[in-house]
Every structure is written in C-alpha cells, then in structure tokens.
Specification:
Length: 232
C-alpha cells in the first residue's frame, strides 16, 4: 500500500473516531396551566409544572385574569389540553406578563407557546427582554395571535447574547389593542428551551476536526492526480 493511500485511510479513520458533537436544546421551564380552575382568577404568579422559573402578571384588573380552555399545541406528552391562561378586557391595555428563568450554564433561549384571541382581544403584543427585570429591550415588532383556533409561536432569543449564562433572565409581553371588555386572549403550554454551554464544541476540537478534513481532502486530490498521470 502506498504511503499516500495509507495516510488517506488513517485520516478517514481519524475523522470517524472523532466524537460527533450534537447540540441539543434542554427544557428550562414549562407551564401547562392544567391545575388552574376554569373561569376563575387564579392569581398573578405561576410556577412552572416542569423546571424552574416564574410567570408574573403586572398591571391587570382582577376580572381580567382567568383560566380558559387550553390546547395540546406545544404541550409535552402526555399532557391533555386542560386549561390555558386567559387574559382579557380593554382596560388592561398596557398590562404585562413576565417570564423569569435561570440561564446559568445555558445559552440561546427559545420561547414557544400556544396562543389565540377573539376578534376584540389583544392584537399587539410586544416581547422584550431584560437581565435585571427593570430595563427591558424590545425584541422585534409586536405580534398578533390568531383568532379562533389556537396557533403556535416561537420566539428565538439565541441572538440576544446578553441572556446567555444569566442567573435570572426575563422575557416580558406587553399587551395592547383590545377593543372591548370581553376582548380575550389565551396562552398555553409555554416552554423555554436553551442549549447547555458544555455541549458546544471547544475551539481546539473544531481545529483538530477541521485539520483532519483538510488532510483527507488533500490526500484525496493527490491520489486523483496520480491516477490521471498513470492512465496517460
């Protein structure tokens, strides 16, 4: 066996033996709201059903908070649709909902949830983020939930590097656009997922893997060139 061929197979073997780094999102916090009492104000603070965190409602009238029919969208199996968080009334325009959660050892959070509203419900929800719970930065343009049936939404905060590794990170929804006292919105099954910082490949690993691939390509090209010369 030629040296070049041996080296080719050695590098190929090296590339196969190098561990493959899979980046998987981990669940930080999840609320299914199924423990809420239907058509009842269940308070302004909600602990997650899985994970650690908190949802807090701020600026709402007592009759603007309730529990309504939930959804299976974005639920973690085997959770049933159960209840969803109901927020309503045009006199609550400007009120907010705040998620707080621990990002220690994690990066790139993504918030997903189920949502719906009626024709008179909040049609302008501004998401924002904060690292201290006081100063918030708007995240994109306001969004509007679908009317009628539940739909799903994902807000990807992976580009907000300031949230990475924070012991307490905050995401706030500020509600506006309700036009009647019975204007309603429902939120259900919010999940916050993030990537463990330890799962990200070290720069040295990436350099070694890149070098192995470069050598593999170089030897492949060299063998191809010699093969062409031999057939002349």
């Amino acid at each position: 066996m030629r040296i070049g061929t041996a080296a080719f197979f050695f590098v190929a073997l090296l590339g196969g033996l190098l561990p493959t780094q899979s980046v998987r999102a981990d669940l930080i916090a999840y609320w299914n709201f199924n423990g809420l009492v239907n058509n009842t104000n269940n308070g302004t603070s909600y602990l997650p059903d899985i994970g650690a965190g908190l949802i807090e409602l701020d600026g709402w009238t007592s009759d603007g908070i309730s529990a309504k029919m939930g959804s299976s969208i974005n639920a973690i199996v085997p959770d049933l649709p159960g209840q969803g968080l109901g927020l309503e009334r045009d006199d609550n325009n400007g009120a907010s909902l705040v998620f707080s959660f621990d990002m220690s050892g994690f990066i790139d959070p993504i918030l997903t949830f189920a949502e719906r509203r009626n024709d008179f419900g909040f049609d302008s929800i501004q998401a924002s983020w904060s690292t201290d719970g006081v100063t918030f930065v708007d995240f994109g343009a306001p969004f509007s939930p679908p009317t009628g049936s539940y739909g799903s939404r994902a807000l990807d905060f992976s580009g907000v590097n300031a949230l990475d590794g924070e012991s307490t990170a905050f995401i706030r929804f500020t509600f506006d656009g309700a036009t009647e006292g019975f204007g309603k919105i429902r939120l259900d099954n919010p999940q916050i997922n993030a990537i463990a910082a330890s799962s990200i490949p070290e720069p040295s690993f990436v350099m070694v893997q890149g070098a192995a691939v470069a050598l593999l390509l170089a030897f492949g090209l060299r063998r191809t060139r010699f093969a062409k010369v031999d057939t002349v």
